[in-house]
Amino acid sequence: MLGDSGVGKTSLVARLTNPERPLNHDISATMGIEFDTQMLTTASGDKVKAQIWDTAGQERFARVLLPTYFRKAKGVILVYDITNAKSFESLSERWMAQLNDHASTDDLAKLLVGNKSDLEASREVTKDKAELFCQEYGMELLETSAKSGDNVLASFEKLIGMVHDKALKASKLQQQKTGIGAINSSAGGAGGGPSSTTASGSRGDSGAINLDAPGGGASQGEACGC
Ligand code: G3D
Ligand code: MG
Fold first, then answer.
1. Strands of 33-41's sheet, edge to edge?
2. Which CA distances in Å does 210 have to 14, 44, 83?
3. Cα of 131 to ligand 1 centre, how many Å?
4. Which one, of 10, 138, 6, lies nearest residue 82 by Cα?
5. Which of 54, 100, 150, 199 is the most buried (most CB within 10 A)?
6. Is residue 3 within 8 Å of residue 78, measured between CB atoms?
7. What residue ranges line ligand 1, CB within 6 angstroms?
8. How far is Cα of residue 159 from the mean position of the Cα atoms in its chain?
9. Rg (CA), the chain
């Protein structure tokens, strides 16, 4: 999950993983990076265990921590707030630049999400403008509301579907080369990554990296996320 502070990244993940939990729960500002796992179903009916990394927008965390995760990520949801033009501008000025610098963008599935669609009266970013951005960067757009729940599940399922398709294609290629099939595209990632296509795993595992713990970031950095 990438995007400026306050656009609703944490609320979107919370709505997905705990649909019954109200918006203003006790996760004020995300510190560094936190993760949740969630079983999701692709359009083709496959079950995928997604590991979702929720980033904090603060500059000092972004500079130090994010590059490690960008390199491991299989997919990214870029979030802006439809009532905040600045948060949309940050996508091209900041977040896309960071992604291009640090992520293996060819392999990365990307989805643009305009959040807070329930606040239509305060809209500052038109859908047309967002569609243009999507055309430029080759991604799709969904408008969501973490408050009402509108399109939240659809967004995560869309991204995970793209990640899953890429993993299957890579697996088929691998199979052609070696004669052995392996769907898991997260080789080297401890515990599997967001593209892990196993149907096992529990819902709701979650954790937070202790930024003060020596080596904490490095060990968690072995997992990958979106
Ligand atoms: P972030 O993780 O991107 O920093 P948060 O953003 O999830 O912490 O959300 C920032 C604020 O926006 C929160 O309000 C949250 O309740 C609100 N918010 C998130 N999504 C929506 C939405 O879809 N609609 C509306 N109306 N509000 C939303 P507070 O008041 O706690 O700062
Ligand atoms: Mg947050």
1. 47-55, 33-41, 206-208
2. 20, 37, 33
3. 23
4. 6
5. 54
6. yes
7. 5-11, 23-24, 30, 57, 115-116, 118-119, 145-147
8. 8
9. 17
Ligand 1 atom at minimal distance to the Cα of residue 14: 7
pTM: 0.78
* Model confidence pLDDT, tens digit, residues 97-139: 888 887 666 678 999 999 999 999 999 999 999 999 999 999 9
Identify which of 9, 11, 122 to mutate to test ligand 1's pocket (most ligand atoms within 8 A of the CB): 11
| Gap from CA of 150 to ligand 2 centroid (Å) | 19
pLDDT in tens, 177-223: 876 655 554 443 333 333 333 333 333 344 333 333 333 333 333 33
Pairing of strands 33-41, 47-55: antiparallel
Which residue do the tokens 């569609």 mark?
Answer: 131
Residue with CA nearest ligand 1 atom 9: 8
Q: How far apart are CA 77 and CA 11, in angstroms?
A: 13
Least distant ligand from the CA of 24: 1
